[in-house]
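Residues pack. One example:


***
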Amino acid sequence: MIECLFLGTGGARYVVARQLRASGGILLKSISGPKTYLLLLDPGPGALIQLAKQKIYPEKISYLLVTHKHLDHSADLNILADAITEGGFKKRGTLFITDEALREGILLNYLRDCLKEIVILKERKEYEVDGFSFCTTGPLLHNAEIYGIIFHLPSKRKIGIIGDTAFFEGLIEEFIGCDYLIVNLVRYEPKKEVLHLSVPDLKGLLKSLNPKLTIITHFGMTMLKAGPERLAKALSEELGLKVISAYDGMRYLFE
């Protein structure tokens, strides 16, 4: 089982800058018998604060996964690397990160040696660590190196994470077979120069993929104005599929 805790559901610069929604990313807890493992996906601005609000100690986190270099996905990476390693005194924690993001310097040099391991994400590659098994898709369409992430559950079901991307030919094929989807839905309507998914894009994806459940998150201003909860309900009714809108602090258990 994997439990997802949404430490933030805000996306895009204005929403993040004003903190109209929190932007701490998603904490995944793998529950395997008596043991649990924590992976923090995209520790954006305020991730550390949101963990504190949930009374979760960062040194309990085993893995950090940064999908791409943009600040709303990585701003708290350094403070978390420092916290996980207790100021560098304990060498622990594995960071999964794209080559571009690492070369960009979003992780400070002095912290690189503090972490136990840094793993460079590559397209269409399998990764397996204590508590988690996941793979990457091919490149998504964004103005940064980024791949989709697909987590494998012990039940053989799959959770597809569709991060920041514009819709493109081939996106549907990357997530075929996913039972669950978590989708970054920044825009209400498409805008040509903005490389993010919109509501019409999502409709096309869901009609083709037919997932058991879709959770939308990472909302920009146009989504907040439209009302994510109302839109999720309307999509569920229109498509005959289960679509829910994440909110800050929401937990969901995937089995």
Observations:
- DSSP finds ten helices and 14 strands in the chain.
- The CA atoms of residues 25 and 187 lie 18 Å apart.
- The chain has one domain: 2-254.
